[in-house]
Amino acid sequence: xxxxxxxxxxxxxxxxxxxxxxxxxxxxxxxxxxxxxxxxxxxxxxxxxxxxxxxxxxxxxxxxxxxxxxxxxxxxxxxxxxxxxxxxxxxxxxxxxxxxxxxxxxxxxxxxxxxxxxxxxxxxxxxxxxxxxxxxxxxxxxxxxxxxxxxxxxxxxxxxxxxxxxxxxxxxxxxxxxxxxxxxxxxxxxxxxxxxxxxxxxxxxxxxxxxxxxxxxxxxxxxxxxxxxxxxxxxxxxxxxxxxxxxxxxxxxxxxxxxxxxxxxxxxxxxxxxxxxxx
Length: 279
Hints:
This protein is of the alpha+beta class. Helix content is 46%, strand content 12%. The chain has a six-stranded mixed beta sheet. α1 packs parallel to α5 (141-163) and α2 (43-62) crosses α3.
């Protein structure tokens, strides 16, 4: 078995961002108000949220700007979620005064700068933010950048769903999203105790699919590439179900009947309840 390796996704940003700008420029005025799977957010709100992400990254990461301390101290993951939700709501309210043309122009300009910033980072250096949904207080840059890619990809896909545009689910674009999300499995299984040597296989079917294995070693779960030949349980999800499940676009109850489970059903439950977004 091959342990998972770093995934370097900075060079995917120009393409996925160009697809977003092309999509947004082709929208009719009424499309900007269409509701999305994100509760309370329409298409324009998601576009504004992506712009906010660019501005924050450039300000704090590239420029070293330190924002004002939050009113409530951050002591837990729940505090992080509450802060993110508060910031998102505040920004969305302000951004609704911006026209689609302004939003698109700012997205295009800032996206190019974000790519330059990400491409210049040392992949193994310490990231500005830890990947909290993977249980990491600190993370290497490559993981943080990969997480940012999944953020941009899945929000763009939510816009595509809302306006009926063709999905961006070919292997080039979606497999890196799924591969990044699977890095959250060891954290999702942190409370699952099993004898050393126990293996659980997670498969995703479809053009962008693949297989990953969790193996219990020295009292902890380690993630590997590909499927362990001997395993106690396995789960297979359709690629469209997988990314939606991990980004809260589908509930566990909706996905469970379509999941193919073999072996000990209890051992695959954490994979069905894992979330790979902050809020």
